[in-house]
Amino acid sequence: MPAVLVHGVPDTHHVWDDVLDHLPRTDVLTLALPGFGCPVPEGFTSTKEEYVDWIIARLEGLGSPADLVGHDWGCALTARVASLRPDLVRTWAGGDASVSGAVEWHDLGKIWQTPKAGEQWMAEFDAPKLSKLLQASGVPTHRAEQTASRLDTTMKESILRLYRSAAHVGDEWEMGLASLMSPSLVFWGIADQFEPVERADILAKSVRATNVVRLDSGHWGPVQRPRELADALTQHWESVRT
Q1: CATH 3.30.70.270 is held by the domain 3-103+169-239
Q2: Which of 15, 45, 53, 225 is close enough to 215 for a disulfide, judged by CB 3.0 to 4.6 Å?
């Protein structure tokens, strides 16, 4: 029963590097979503539904239910996966992303969802600007620079396509979370400037989470508080050992 960790936007699987250093288990896979630090398969158009199907296909190949974890977009995508295919998921944990029709997109999301405005924003967005944004959110300088160095045209295009497929993701996916049967944990940065921490309780209610862990961090808890998150995940997994 491996653990599978899924990153968000504008990250790659490296967002989990420091968390891995603090996990006692070694059967952990960090998935690289298409377009985020890796190529996009032919015919893949980076919609939220395609990413969900892509994750499901990876889980189907494991041979046993996984301990599934997601941050940011990884949270929303894995929650959807767990609701559609509970047979593939032993436990679920996620944070810093809303799946609620009552929640509005953050300002950046609205820009990315707008034709022309999104393209213009991305045209002016580069590694130094991303690094500055991350550092302003509390990400250590060296990690911010590493993350920013992986920003490329493919990632920018993937972000725009993903967000434009998800203008009404809360309305479309929230009710389905009732089908998420796995024991669940929600984690959230108390100073998240994109997704206010109050939204943690909304998600926890939707997935009937047994615990909500509030990290002393901004949006990027896996980078800012990796030890605390690793400890929370380990306790969550061990609490449902069979």
Answers
A1: no
A2: 225
